TrEMBL record:
It comes from the Eukaryota. The gene is orf19. This is LAGLIDADG endonuclease. Keywords: Endonuclease, Hydrolase, Mitochondrion, Nuclease. InterPro entries: Homing_endonucl, LAGLIDADG_dom, LAGLIDADG_Endonuclease. GO terms for molecular function: endonuclease activity. It comes from Orbilia oligospora. One of its GO terms (cellular component) is mitochondrion. Residues 16-114, 172-267 form the Homing endonuclease LAGLIDADG domain.
Length: 297
């Protein structure tokens, strides 16, 4: 079903997949003496990206009907932010129809509960505000030290994770846009070239990452970052040519990562033809590689 607020036709499953990778739900809490509780709470939804993906961020904002703002976050990054309750309900409506399937769904559910409390003005009461603090303490990295002493009766709220299958390949495209990487490794001594595709995620989503093996019918899963994360990785050239490239040709990436994919295709073609074994072919690969990923901008 097409989103009526979606003038550019961005696939809704792509949006959810990308948000599973890059979005953040947050509750900002600080002191304000004008309130009975002595504190304020500002709910928000945000996505921060490198400047090179400003166009993608603008497409996502357009998908959500133009709500929120996009502003420069640092020298090399931009951020899409939504704060108003009215606009946040548009965000909530999307995820009710096209659910998050990583463990980020837990933060989403906690955030949704907090938004309902705020909408019902319960945050103006001491009991209601404590409920919001409990939710905040259960989200993301927990309650900051600056608030722990002030809210010593805080209780962590446990919400069960509900495993969901990938319903549409566009979710996987969106997730890869955020967490995926097309890479090339070269060794000049023997004109050795290895290339691959990987998706990295926190190890709490290892079951989801393992499912990519059957979805792509190739690859393997490896532990990384001292066991804190897992990688789905494909390095076999025939799998790159026969599984990965056809998938992303059929379901295109739309951010800056699409350029890395196109470069990977060029290098895969050179290696498949064994042109990389010549000095001229190897130099072609080095030139293409020099503009990929973080070297592109």
């Amino acid at each position: 079903m097409e989103n009526i607020n979606n003038p550019i036709g961005l696939n809704p499953f792509f949006v959810s997949g990308f948000c599973d990778a890059e979005a953040c739900f947050h509750l900002s809490i600080g002191k304000n003496s004008k309130y009975k509780t002595g504190y304020y709470v500002n709910p928000g939804f945000s996505i921060g990206l490198h400047n090179k993906d400003l166009n993608l961020l603008e497409k996502i904002q357009s998908y959500f009907g133009g709500v929120g703002t996009i502003s420069k976050q640092t020298k090399n990054s931009v951020q899409f932010r939504v704060f108003s309750i009215k606009d946040l309900k548009i965000i909530i409506d999307h995820f009710e129809k096209y659910p998050l399937i990583t463990h980020k769904q837990i933060d989403y559910k906690l955030f949704k509960q907090a938004l309902e409390l705020i909408e019902n003005k319960e945050h103006f009461t001491l009991d209601g505000f404590q409920k919001i603090v409990n939710l905040r303490a259960s989200m993301n990295k927990g309650l900051p030290n600056s608030l722990k002493d002030s809210f010593s009766n805080t209780t962590i709220i446990k919400i069960a994770f509900v495993p969901l299958n990938i319903q549409d390949p566009n979710w996987l495209v969106g997730f890869a846009e955020g967490e995926g990487c097309f890479f090339v490794k070269t060794t000049k001594t023997n004109n050795n070239v290895s290339l691959g595709f990987q998706i990295t995620q926190n190890n709490r989503d290892v079951l989801l990452i393992n499912s990519f093996i059957s979805l792509f019918n190739c690859g393997r899963v490896e532990s990384c970052n001292k066991g804190l994360a897992v990688n789905f990785i494909v390095t076999k050239l025939s799998d790159i040519n026969e599984k990965i490239i056809p998938f992303f040709d059929k379901y295109p990436l739309i951010g800056s990562k699409s350029k890395d994919f196109e470069d990977l295709k060029k290098i895969a073609k050179i290696k498949t033809s064994k042109e990389h074994l010549t000095s001229e072919g190897f130099e072609k690969i080095l030139k293409i590689k020099s503009g990929m990923n973080s070297l592109r901008f």
